Amino acid sequence: MTPPFVVSHWIATTPEKVWEAYTTPEIFHQFFAPDGLHVPLDSVNVEIRVGGRFDFNMVFDDTGVVNENRGVIVELQEPNKMVFSEPEFMGSELRSTQAFDADNGGTRITVTQDGLPEELIGNPEVIEAFRSTFRKLGRVLDVDTENR
Predict the structure, then answer these.
(1) Could you tell me if residue 146 is inside a domain?
(2) pLDDT at res. 76
């Protein structure tokens, strides 16, 4: 079994504001894609309840290729934790935990993913892709962010 992928980042706002950004399609689509990709608002389907859908498309800016993300919410602890399962991710199941913990006047966002291919675990490009989304979130909310 491969180890989990873990990345964290600090943002100068409350867990409640981060939760709102993740659960509001009009905000979510503005930040939740690495640099070079975007999430069309009309592709976001969020049902914030255990068993609810969390679906969206990431579109490559330069080619228009669409990467569909189809998840089911398996755990919620508002405003601190969301767990999604993508049952058909690259031939297996991906489980992604988004944790939002109050930290030093802001929020530490920690993403833990189980079920990624081993070559993605600790991959600097994958880590940077996540960090670029956190920086986008900071710009959307007009607050500072830091790698942590």
Answers:
(1) no
(2) 97
